[in-house]
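Design request, tokens follow.
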């Protein structure tokens, strides 16, 4: 559990206490650093931050678009905050996602300083959508550090407009506010669902869990890849997420030589609207009743670091809803996995080598996306060199 394995770890102790692990300011005589900015939704590092996290989440019209949202968001948050606070208390007093993100970003930059000397030094940052450090906190820090070139590195392996897109939109809004002169030349890594080392790291963790079953049962165990679901009205826009999650799943099973039966299922449904299914809990309950049931390995395929959806929803809530919890094992999140960190560094190097400001798919993502407030007309308005001091 987080309270035993992460919160007390010396790896994160200084960052956790100060909250400013990457705040060093570069002198004018030094080469301007290249910012590597890990972007994600984030999570409250303490129970006390839960309410603000939820308020920002339910107020984001890129992920939840409802009438009278300003007022309904406050009402929803008032009702849900005590429940969610309790859940964070049960996983150790907060989400570990900030600590893992800062650790991963720091390690990636150390690798890039060696593999990409032409863009060195590389300086790590974290910019979360709904939790500290917020984008509006990170961007001024980057400007203070003299960053002129930065990569927005989405920590969602698979693109969705409601996740990566929301972070991109917020980066645009905060850029207009804090950097209207466009002194930072931005590019973005907007997806990486089939990176070979990422896939290998996931498959290694699955294999480790399969080894915990009796040898005679191992090939009869079902692998369930569980990803955060999406409302069907988002899916029906043509959002890339379902297809890209499926691509990751298939790649992992290729690595495992399709040695077990498997399915992709979906978790974290909220509210009465139709969501993408089948739902994780319902699928597990159905499989438990099937003849020859030998157990399951649950794989959090769209979450690369532990947070509440793994530590509570899968590790606690799911096991309370099933009849045979002893036959369910959860594949470990990637967190500090060294191969995964190598994967992130490789992805960044490939991005630098390509010279492209964003992937070929990002323009189509925005053509198909629902309207958003206060954003660009085209992604090229944000990414690329727009300095007024050329």
């Amino acid at each position: 559990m987080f309270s035993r394995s992460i919160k007390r770890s010396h790896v994160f102790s200084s960052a956790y206490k100060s909250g400013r692990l990457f705040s060093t300011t570069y002198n004018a005589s030094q080469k301007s650093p290249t910012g590597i900015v890990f972007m994600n939704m984030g999570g409250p590092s303490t129970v006390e931050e839960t309410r603000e996290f939820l308020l920002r989440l339910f107020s984001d019209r890129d992920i939840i678009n409802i009438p009278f949202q300003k007022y309904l968001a406050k009402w929803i948050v008032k009702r849900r905050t005590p429940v969610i606070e309790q859940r964070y208390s049960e996983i150790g007093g907060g989400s570990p996602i900030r600590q893992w993100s800062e650790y991963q970003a720091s390690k990636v930059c150390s690798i890039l300083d060696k593999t990409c000397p032409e863009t060195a030094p590389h300086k790590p940052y974290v910019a979360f959508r709904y939790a500290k450090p917020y984008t509006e906190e990170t961007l001024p820090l980057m400007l203070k550090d003299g960053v002129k070139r930065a990569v927005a590195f989405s920590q969602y392996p698979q693109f969705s407009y409601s996740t990566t897109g929301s972070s991109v939109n917020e980066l645009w809004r905060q850029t207009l506010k804090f950097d209207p002169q466009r002194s930072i030349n931005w590019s973005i890594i907007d997806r990486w669902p089939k990176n070979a080392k990422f896939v290998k790291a996931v498959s290694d963790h699955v294999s480790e869990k399969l080894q915990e079953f009796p040898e005679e049962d191992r090939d009869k165990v079902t692998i369930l890849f569980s990803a955060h679901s999406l409302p069907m009205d988002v899916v029906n826009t043509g959002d890339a997420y379902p297809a890209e999650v499926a691509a990751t799943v298939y790649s992992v099973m290729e690595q495992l030589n399709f040695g077990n039966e498997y399915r992709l299922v979906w978790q974290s449904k909220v509210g009465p609207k139709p969501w993408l299914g089948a739902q994780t809990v319902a699928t597990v309950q159905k499989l438990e009743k099937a003849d020859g049931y030998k157990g399951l390995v649950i794989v959090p395929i769209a979450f690369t670091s532990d947070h509440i959806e793994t530590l509570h929803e899968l590790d606690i809530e799911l096991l309370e809803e099933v009849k045979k919890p002893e036959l369910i094992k959860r594949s470990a999140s990637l967190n500090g996995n060294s191969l995964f960190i190598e994967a992130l560094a490789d992805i960044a190097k490939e991005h630098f080598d390509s010279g492209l400001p964003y992937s070929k798919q990002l323009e189509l993502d925005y053509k198909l996306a629902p309207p958003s407030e206060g954003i660009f007309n085209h992604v090229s308005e944000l990414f690329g060199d727009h300095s007024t001091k050329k």
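Comment from the thread starter after seeing the answer: thanks! DSSP finds 14 helices and eight strands in the chain.
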